[in-house]
Amino acid sequence: MTSTGELKAFADSITAATSPFRNYLSDLHREYLSLTEGTVADYIPELALADPQWFGIAAATVDGQVFEVGHCDQPFTIQSISKAFVYGLALEDHGRDYVNSKVGVEPTGEAFNAIVLDEATNRPCNPMVNAGAIATADLIKGKDGTERLKRMLDMFGRYTGRSHDINVPVFLSEKSTGHRNRAIAYLMLNFGMVSDRIDETLDLYFQQCSILVNARDLSLMAATLANGGVNPVTGDRALDQRYVQDVVSVMLTCGMYDSSGDWAYRVGMPAKSGVGGGITAVSPGKLGLGIFSPPLDAKGNSVRGIRVCQQLSKDFGLHPFNVAPAPKDLATWLMGSADLDSW
Amino acid sequence: MPKVISVHSYRGGTGKSNLTANLATTVAQQGYRVGVVDTDLPSPGIHNIFDLEPEVMTKTLNSYLWGEADLADGAYDVGRNLNLGKGGTLFLVPSSCKADDIARILKDGYDVRLLNDGFRQLVKTLELDYLFIDTHPGLSKETFLTIAISHCLLLIVRPDKQDYQGTAVTLDVARQLNVRHVQIVINKALACLAPEVLRQKVAETYGVPVAGLFPLSEDIAKLASEGVFCVRHPEHLVTQELQAVARRIME
Description:
A: alpha+beta, Beta-lactamase, 2 domains, five-stranded antiparallel β-sheet, B: alpha/beta, Rossmann fold, eight-stranded mixed β-sheet
């Protein structure tokens, strides 16, 4: 009897579920589940509904293995994580020079919702603060709001390999309470930095923050960037390879709100967090991580998410500038070996 | 390093649960800490061999899969009444034999990855040296998983055509799952077949070592109703063969 593709596919899913690397993630999950610091975002009521016990860790490798522990199917709103990926779409729509003329790439110590533009150029500092993300959303092409939203959703679908929807109550809440974002948008309109379809663009921005994803999706999005813009499971290209470095480098310098410097120092994996509790982190050429845990620290990053990324970076030497031998060899833990005791 | 032994057969009625119970007991008699998990959720039964009454089984594998308890909460010290000696310990995690619980598992299914996490936690909590997994016959999500995690896979085969074919399929799966140690146990061999010839033929057919051979006999048929055979009949030939299989597993 010979093995068919079906057997191999199913067997692969089982070996991923029982591999040493997943066992490692499972221990990590257990360890940090008891960490109860942080508070769930409550600036809109829908976000406050999140269960602080929700906790999922997903990792996807560039060769398409996906490891999941905990609540990896629980949907939540992507929030600011969307900013990095929409930036990639804007780059594809207009090219680097034009996008650079509208949005800078300089990290800021200011809060993510600061009403600050560069004094000389009137540009928002970077695409990860709200001002920059609104200016970036403005760049998304399409004949109307529907087509622009659809293009965004399709793009996320190429990263994750499934179709996405928005959470309408979250969108409506964000919209009805988003006065500060409206103020930022009008300030940019005043300087001619965004087009005058401003209400449509603000809607689009609130919608992009309300897209529903799960931890598995976040791991695949990061793995797609780690894999040069091609989803390692479906083989579909999600981002033009010329712009992978743009997206990943702004994630490294600006992705973790105003703790990005500390993150770059301690963890080093380019990452983006959202107030929904998600973090997506890229280890170029190796893997992508998606962590979901709603309690946030004072800066708006998932407390458990940060700790998981720190631990993974340390144990497997995933900091891009690390040259010291790591305590654990990633390839061995992914492949498994006879001498490896992950029990 | 703890060792996981999955006992599997392609078809039902091969004596899987009896063999699992007896092997686990034999290993525990050597002074080891041994656990047995009954993953035969649709048709649990091994608790009978250990005389564990359903009324006592307040926590089971089902409770763990439904998030109601840790797997170790459903571990019962069945070795206490077996006079294991040498400080050996034997725990059983049964599956629920309530019809409602079985129906719930069949209807809702469960995340098979939980089994892997639960087994690891159980081994850590109870500090087990050996974990035996009794499985549902045939191939299913949970048999794939238990095969994949086993350090040693024991396939029980009766010498008949259906078992032979099924065992070939299971071996295909085991190879695909990169299982390193597979051994075959021949059970219910007819007296008319010469044991050594049979052993050799089976080993050659599958390219897998034969860890033991048990004849079809009334003594063995009594196993199920009599508790753990190797404890009741320590000098019996069958018990000696069990000890031989246990030694091969522990190598």
